Each structure stands twice: as structure tokens, then as C-alpha cells.
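chain below, 485 aa
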Amino acid sequence: MVVLTAAAKPEADVAGAEPLPLVVDLDGTLLRTDTLVESLFALGRLHPLRLLVLPLWLAQGRAAMKHRLAALAPLDVHTLPMTQGLLAYLRVEQRNGRRLVLATGADEQIARAVAGELGCFDAVLASDGVVNLSGERKRDRLVAEFGKRGFDYAGNSARDLPVWAAARRGLLIGAAPRVVAAAERVTAVDRAFEQERPNLGTYLGAMRVQHWLKNLLLLVPLLAAHRIQEPAALARALLGLFCFCLAASGVYLLNDLFDLPADRRHPHKKARALASGRMPVLHALLLVPGLWLVSALLALALSPSFIAALGVYVALMLAYSMRLKDIAIVDTLVLAAGYTLRIYAGSLAAAVVVSPWLLVCSSALFFGLALLKRYAELVTLHSALGAHARVRGYRVDDAALITGLGTAAGCIAAAVLALYPVVEPSGQARWPVWLLCALLLFWTGHMWLMAHRGRIHDDPVAFALRDPLSRALGVITLGLLVLGT
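prediction:
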């Protein structure tokens, strides 16, 4: 939500005189994002090896680096999140005959693309590969163009203070209180556009804390070994679980950064905190290494083998985010491997032996769920975009093949589970396991039916947590596990 408030307004323009130009910043002002950070992740998505030469580009200057990034990894300006309140204000000023100028430290290729998309700017001033048009350099350029106090300026950060000091009036867009106070000391503040600032709920939502339930898989080896009641083993498993929660949240944030253009075109994902601009991309960029660092430090209390498993998980998900998620079938195999790795890591954290049959069963089950996720996304996008919709490396006409592979994977998982008490008898009753197989087959069919009907929009696990039937089957499954124990 964007709210426009008006401060004490200075004297009006001289009657009959042409209004002074209004100069508008881009990053964080007109756009609710940082185009430099987005360009970095676009480069990582398109040309990941080029990230290795970034220090060489930066050594040539920030303007040169921005120019190379904009040329190699162009942004989809049509989907970039705009500050709607400011944009509406600019439309009114344009109709009133006022000259509008876009002046930004972003590269001119991006700035001109945004200006062309909006069609309301009379001129564009931007970094050109040689001069980084920010701070004092932007001030000097604007003074040379319009004279001191010969323009009004809309900005949002402390880097804009030198420009406000040379402007007649200032417009503040979502500025922090300290920036507002500093701006009021150097210029007459005309208007302030107050944006909704991210809160704790925004960050927790972006970190997908609701998906931390997936990491309960680390407790499966304890349950299978009938040692869940041992305090020491349970404590180690819970610590490992929390390490995976933090690491997975870092992965979710990183994946969202790489997926920004696709998420903004998605009918549901466009509301995510990063895609919509409610959470600054720079904050996510800082959170990712922070979460991984805390996870690694906590993991030091466990075994070196657990630390290695945690590192393999992060590396695998990093490869998934940068490249593997766009390769059909490979993407679902990687997701299945990530879930199965959680179970194996749980055995390492609790120091219990996990049966290979359990790992095979879980791999087949999670492969089927990953395919279900892709199928559900295809159904959702097909209803919104038509027959030309694509999800990663899949097309709409792949739906039948995905359905066949996914349901077969679920049946294989149930078959492996049914054979487990026969091949590895432990003296316990077999009927709870076989009843569990029947429930697994029923749940698999139910989930595919819900996806086919368009009830599952994205993550099957998230849907299952909301679905009354899935929750009831989950309770019955826990009861059967207790009986089996």
C-alpha cells in the first residue's frame, strides 16, 4: 500500500511561468527494487561463469560494471515492481504539461527501457559505462542541465541528499525517518510517499518458515529405529533439523532472487515479498549468507559427516537454483535428492543406521511429489496463459507424461515400502506397514486428482497441510507408526 501525504508546501511557481522540471530517481524510488542486484542474479541465471570476472569489471569502475551487466543480462522491465502512488502522480504532472526527467545511477540501457515502457519521461540521464551518475555526480549533472534550484527531485535514500541540497523542492518516496530528517535540513520537502515497510512477518514469509515442517524428515531415522524416546539422540536430531531449516530458508531466498522475472509473470507467485517489492532484494542478498553461516556454526556441534551432508545439500540446491531447475526431469530428481538427503542427514545427526529400503522408498515418493509440483504449476499457468504456458523445461503438452511418471513413482514407493518388512523382518507386525502402503496409494491418487482439478497451485506439501483429508491421513499414519513401534 502506498499513501501520499503532503507536507508544508513552499511558495508556488510564479503565475504563468512554466513549472520546473521534476527529476525522478529509479532504484528504490520509481522502482521498488534495485536493478543492480537484479542484474547480478540475471547474469548468474544466464551466464553463471561470468560472475567470476565481476571483480575485473568492477576494477574498471562501477559504471563499466553496470554497463556490462545490463548488456549481458537485460532485465524484463515490463514486470519490474513500480511505486504505483508515485507513478500516478507523475501521470498527473505529465498531463499538466510538466517536464519529467528520469535521472539514475542505473545503466542507461535499463533506464531507457523503463522510460520507454512508461512513456512519460521527456529525458533520461543515467550511467553510461564511464560516469556513474550517483550522488555528487548526479547533482553536478542536474545543476549543469537546469541550474541550482532549477528542478524538483524525487528520491529515497541518503545517496540522494546532495541532489536534494541543489533542488528547489524534494519529494521523498518510502524514505527512512533518518533520511527524511536529513532531507528536511537541506531542502523544502514538498511531498512524501509512504510505502509499507517490511516487518518480521514479511521476512519470515520470504524465508518460508511454514516449509520448515519439511525438515521433520530428519526425525524419520529415529522413528524407524524406534529410538525417538532417547533424549540425547532426539536432541542431536532436533539440532540438525534446525540447521537444515536455516539452510533451506537461505536456499528459498536465493531461488526467489534467481526466479524474480518468472515469479512476476506467475498469477500467484507475483505476490511474494521479493517479486512484489515488499522486501528489498538487497536485504535478501544479505540474509542468504547470514542464514548459511549460522547454520554452519550450529552444525559444528554435530558430526563432521553431518556437516558434509549439510554442505552437499546447499551445493545441490545452489546448482538447482542456477541451472538444474530449467532441465526437465533433472529438476525433479534434484528436488527428490534434496528431500532424501534430509533423511540421511537425520541419521548422521542422531548417529543411527538408516535402512537403504527407506532411502529408496523416499526417493521414489519425493520424485513423484516433485513431478506433481510441476504438473500443478502447468495446470495453473495453462488456465491463466493458455496453451503456450511453460514451467521450467516443461510445456503444457507434457502434462500427460508427467502424470504417468508421477503416479508410477508413487506406486513404486508404496511397493518398496510393502516389501520392506518381508526383506528385513524385525519381529514386528507387518499389517501396519501394509495398511500404510494402502494409505500412501490413496493419498497419491487424491493429490493428483486435486492437481488435475486446479486445486494445487504450487507446493503439494503446502496444500497437504491445508487439506482436511491429507491431515486426517497424516494422523492415521502417525497412529500406524506408533503401532508398528
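Residues 267 and 384 are 7 Å apart (CA to CA). The first strand starts at residue 2 and ends at 6.
thats it, cya
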